[in-house]
Amino acid sequence: MSETMALARPRLGAGGEALAGLMLCLPATLAYLLLLLLPTLAAVLLAFTDYELGAPALAWIGLGNFEELLGDQGFRIALRNTLVYVSIVAPVSIAGALALALLIEAAARGRALFRAVFFLPVVSLPVAMATAWQYLLHPTIGPVNAVLAQFGVAGPAWLTSSDTVLLSLAFIGIWEAIGFNLVLFLAGLTAIPRELHQAAEVDGVTSAWERFRLVTWPLLGPTTLFVVTITMIRAVRVFDSVAVLTQGGPNRASEVLLYTMYTEGFTFFRLGYSAAITLVFLAIVLALMLLQTKVLDKRVHYG
Amino acid sequence: MAGIVIGGVQKRFGDFQALRGVSLAVAPGEFVALVGPSGCGKTTLMRIVAGIERQDAGTIGIGGRDVGGLRAADRDVAMVFQSYALYPHLTVAENIAVPLTMRRLSAWQRLPLLGRFWPGARAARAAIAADAAQAARSLGLGAMLDRRPAQLSGGQRQRVALARAIVRSPRAFLMDEPLSNLDAALRVQTRREIVEIHRRVGATTLYVTHDQSEALTMADRVAVMLAGEILQVDSPARIYADPADLRVASFIGSPRINTLAAALRQDGAVTVAGTPMGLRASGEAGEATLALRPEDVRLDAHGPLAVQAEHLEFLGESTLLHARHAVLGTPIALRLPPGAAAPEGTFRLGFAPQRALVFGPDGRRRAAQALEAAHV
Ligand SMILES: Nc1ncnc2c1ncn2[C@@H]1O[C@H](COP(=O)(O)OP(=O)(O)OP(=O)(O)O)[C@@H](O)[C@H]1O
Ligand SMILES: [Mg+2]
């Protein structure tokens, strides 16, 4: 007993120790407060005001902004376009990434190369890449239409026709998302014990499809759920390509949620209204995250 | 029931020769234990028999036909993996049913939703569920059919893996250290259960273990493997009492067999440090090794071995006396009968000559017999 007493280090006293702890937490807490919590709170509050940038005063208008949103044609188009965009980008980039991951996993060699090639879009600068796409999809000098012309097809004006602009943006979105999803799926695949595949073989599984159904797909469940959530959230967030390539046009055919928020806030300086759109956006993202953690999570973890 | 015939199987991983021409025949209905130290190639051999891994040379026959060109699924064996390899998302009942589902249902009947309504699927699925439940009950898993593997104890998972194997009647059972993850008590119990199942089903079984007591208690025959080679295949009693190779003698038996550097004289007499041991062995004169099991050595004031006492090890049912040979310095252990007084200082040991094992310099066994007392 006396020995442990002697060995115990000199103590600060309970109060001193607590103070030291608080001091250590301070920088992170401050950064969190200043950079995340306060701006979010400010946005939430602004959403209930008619504040305009440079205006001398602001008034509390309650749900006024949200009422206006309901009747706003532009907002409705943006919401619809965003949903269309997400419902193209998410399924295609997820299914495509899964298919590619399975192919690469089965390949005897070249895994590292394929992984790097498909991951390239993820690490490249979105704005720079958008410019590259602008060239590729250019109606007259772009290589895409040049190739199409070889086959006697007159390619459309990809980014400037309201029929194709959303599809073209979705294609770029898929190209950006697929590498990220691929890497996640590859990691998920390596985590599946090889013995399970072998056990399936001994149990009489002969086709690749049967093996996928019995082992790969169920064991990939947690990965897939994460990929689905993150892809949808990233797709809802689409902004860079729209801002660089189309500015929401032509004729609002590529108007999306965050771009509307941006124009309302920083072109028309209606910050209160813009904040209301941000809240709608936040609600969508939160709903997706809740869906993941509360509902689906229970069905893919077998612990 | 069918047998397994392994003929001259070789396997290398890069520069490393994991199997150096392994041959082994398991008779129909026989239980053979493959025992050897870690890394000697047991799992590799098992996986080659199952068809999960390809051999570089040699043949595998199961049930009288060559299965060299067949996939694992077509070899018709059941395997219990060292790690159980249960499907974590399936319940106990579903896990056990997988081998039946894959073999009894057509590809159409297995389709996700549609398959349920395919002609005959309903009846076939009911039969499968009944068989799976039957297999589960025979291993005492009847109450946990709806649990997932994560909700089971190690021993229960073990039994699910076994049930998944016995739910069909395959041509052969392959079990890879199925008890290695269990605690001592559960291990003994499950050991009995496996032997019981084997008696009931009478299936050809190849059972891999690195635990020699498991091999000796369970198997009809034991195959001792070392560094990619099978050294001896024999009944447990003969493996223990009549080892063909010094390495087999050293590997089997706990505590380890005593080995003494010996010499073989021209007339065949075996000597240790110049002292005749009362034994004559066949073969060329020269160096040899004399091996004695600890229970075959006894205190004997007129015995041929002079030793120095070292320390005692209390084992419960007996006491182990550790000593060193007075001249060679080699350790010698012997079991003292209960209640015997432990000697101190220098004393002498004897042994029954017919129990002594003599090995040549190449490690192969030499035939030996006791000399008449007059000869010594
Ligand atoms: N895929 C592989 N690549 C390279 N070496 C391998 C591979 N599989 C096994 N080996 C080597 O082959 C040898 C035999 O391995 P194996 O798994 O058959 O041993 P084991 O007898 O089952 O051992 P344990 O009792 O530890 O399970 C080991 O030395 C191991 O390192
Ligand atoms: Mg092994």
UniProtKB/TrEMBL annotation, chain A:
The keyword Chloroplast does not apply. It holds the Pfam family BPD_transp_1. SUPFAM superfamilies: MetI-like (SSF161098). Its main location: membrane. Residues 79-292 form the ABC transmembrane type-1 domain. The keyword Membrane applies. InterPro entries: ABC_transporter_permease, MetI-like, MetI-like_sf. It is a multi-pass membrane protein. Keywords: Cell membrane, Membrane, Transmembrane, Transmembrane helix, Transport. It is found in: Cell membrane. The chain crosses the membrane at residues 21-48, 83-104, 116-136, 165-193, 214-236, 271-291. Belongs to the binding-protein-dependent transport system permease family. This is Sugar ABC transporter permease. The lineage of its organism: Bacteria, Pseudomonadati, Pseudomonadota, Alphaproteobacteria, Acetobacterales.
From TrEMBL, chain B:
Keywords: ATP-binding, Nucleotide-binding, Transport. GO terms for molecular function: ATP binding. PROSITE patterns: ABC_TRANSPORTER_1, ABC_TRANSPORTER_2. Residues 4-252 form the ABC transporter domain. PANTHER family: MALTODEXTRIN IMPORT ATP-BINDING PROTEIN MSMX, OSMOPROTECTIVE COMPOUNDS UPTAKE ATP-BINDING PROTEIN GGTA. Belongs to the ABC transporter superfamily. This is ABC transporter ATP-binding protein. It comes from Falsiroseomonas selenitidurans.
